[in-house]
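About this split. The held-out portion is used to measure sequence recovery: a designer receives only the structure tokens and must propose an amino acid at every position. Recovery is the fraction of positions where the proposal matches the reference. Here is one held-out target exactly as it appears in the evaluation file.
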């Protein structure tokens, strides 16, 4: 691959300008800094890259009829013209960036790098704006020469928040642009300590069933919708997340799926098979264990407690939301990075190792990442293809399904199996107390032990926790409508979840 990087404006044309924090910023100067940084990063990544003569103005050359001669577009595979936007008129800043946007030629087709570049730069902190066709002379000339091309507006020169972020992260921004184009990155050990991951883990002995959940309809559905819809033995999944990569136009599988014994797409790749009646995760090449359900890893992140890849597959570079299924000899987990905690694939893999897992398969990332558990819901609203569902022994379903069930039962004359309240209207909708996101340890004060129930008030007793022992509470609770008494949704030391009277718990 050969890339030509063009810095916008110059040769007497400063482009847009703005005074931020006492400094006058000129677009022609910033584009040359950016172009040089991107060229350096591309070269370091093994990409053959050149920079258009920075003493010249490519648009002026177009006007004079010299652009084709000076650029020689036919010798390149991709052209990136770099600019800085204007129009925010926010020299003081308001705590929010105005952001990054990108254009493709109105005379041709998209390059395929538009979303990758927007993802890569927005993960650094810039607001993600649009990708649109543009009547820009330079990239349209390149397109007519048969070359893929884009005009990238990195950020707004007249937005203080944008410029301050540019100044802090200039090198990182240039490297992110390069990674989006190169489609690969090398894992970096220094990244290990910077990742923030969420997980929901289950002891293998407590798994009732793990299975692949096909999408409903030809154009997918959100993970939240599947969390409410899908049942196994009349129970919704306790944990559900997005699964394989897919074509967002056709919704065809892109990273490997076997569902119900039928291969939907079976590439030459490792993945996770669910053997032993859906109770045991097993590393398997092309589902050679003949499991009913198998999800391909793109890529395999961790094997034998070590990072299992050397380069990042195309489309997975940069910092973004990510999700994986991970396991060891004792437990398995859905591990994910939220969009606000976007990380590189290297950071993700090393973070999973730090959590103690020896094997991990990467699923789809970016805007597709969603995970619903008994305690919380993380959803970005994208319709996705397949999902992974986990049913836990003695489980009571995920938080969305329970809330839906409770709402329905409140308007009927009879209770619904598995709903939050066993008597309609006796408890309020689920609420959450702030400041409990990482879990609060509560001590049992009941002399005869605390009953952990499947539903509030009179639900079946799942476990009795002795006085002085602790349970973990993540802030979720409901109230008895008649008395206002609280029922906490807690997790015991054995891993069971259920409802307990707050009257017998102390912080």
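Reference sequence for scoring:
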């Amino acid at each position: 691959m050969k890339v030509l990087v063009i810095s916008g404006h110059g040769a007497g044309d400063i482009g847009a300008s703005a005074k931020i924090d006492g400094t006058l910023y000129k677009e022609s100067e910033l584009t040359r800094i950016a172009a040089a940084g991107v060229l350096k990063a591309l070269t370091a990544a093994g990409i053959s890259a050149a920079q258009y003569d920075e003493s010249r103005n490519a648009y002026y050359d177009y006007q004079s009829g010299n652009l084709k001669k000076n650029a020689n577009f036919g010798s390149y595979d991709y052209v990136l013209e770099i600019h800085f936007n204007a129009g925010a008129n926010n020299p003081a800043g308001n705590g929010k960036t105005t952001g990054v946007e990108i254009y493709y030629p109105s005379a041709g087709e998209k390059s395929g790098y538009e979303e990758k570049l927007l993802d890569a730069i927005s993960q650094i902190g810039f607001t993600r704006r649009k990708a649109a066709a543009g009547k820009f002379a330079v990239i349209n000339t390149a397109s007519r020469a048969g070359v893929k091309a884009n005009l990238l507006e990195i950020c707004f020169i007249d937005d203080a928040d944008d410029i301050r972020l540019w100044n802090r992260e200039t090198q990182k921004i240039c490297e992110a642009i390069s990674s989006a184009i190169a489609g690969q990155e090398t894992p970096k050990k220094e990244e290990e300590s910077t990742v923030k991951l969420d997980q929901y883990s289950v002891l293998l002995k407590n798994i009732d069933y793990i299975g692949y959940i096909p999408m409903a309809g030809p154009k997918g559905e959100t993970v939240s919708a599947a969390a409410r819809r899908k049942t196994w033995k009349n129970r919704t999944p306790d944990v559900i997340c997005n699964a394989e990569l897919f074509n967002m136009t056709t919704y065809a599988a892109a990273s490997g799926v076997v569902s119900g014994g039928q291969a939907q797409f079976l590439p030459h790749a490792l993945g996770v098979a669910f053997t032993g009646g859906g109770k045991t995760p097993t590393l398997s090449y092309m589902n050679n264990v003949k499991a009913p359900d198998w999800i391909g890893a793109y890529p395999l992140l961790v094997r034998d407690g070590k990072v299992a890849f050397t380069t990042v597959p195309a489309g997975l570079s940069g910092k973004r939301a990510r999700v994986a299924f991970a396991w060891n000899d004792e437990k398995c987990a859905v591990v994910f990075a939220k969009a606000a905690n976007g990380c590189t694939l290297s950071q993700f893999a090393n973070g999973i190792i730090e959590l103690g897992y020896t094997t991990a398969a990467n699923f789809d990332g970016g805007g597709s990442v969603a995970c619903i558990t008994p305690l919380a819901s993380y959803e970005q609203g994208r319709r996705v293809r397949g999902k992974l569902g986990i049913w836990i022994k003695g489980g009571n379903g995920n938080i969305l399904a329970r809330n839906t069930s409770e709402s329905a039962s409140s308007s009927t004359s009879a209770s619904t199996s598995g709903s939050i309240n066993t008597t309609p209207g006796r408890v309020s909708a689920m609420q959450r107390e702030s400041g409990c996101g990482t879990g609060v340890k509560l001590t049992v004060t009941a002399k005869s032990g605390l009953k952990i129930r499947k539903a509030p008030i009179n639900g079946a007793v799942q476990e009795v926790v002795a006085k002085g022992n602790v349970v973990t509470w993540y802030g979720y609770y409901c109230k008895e409508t008649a008395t206002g008494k609280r029922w906490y949704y807690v997790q015991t030391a054995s891993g069971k979840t259920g409802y307990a009277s707050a009257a017998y718990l102390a912080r």
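Annotator remark: The first helix runs from residue 27 to 44.
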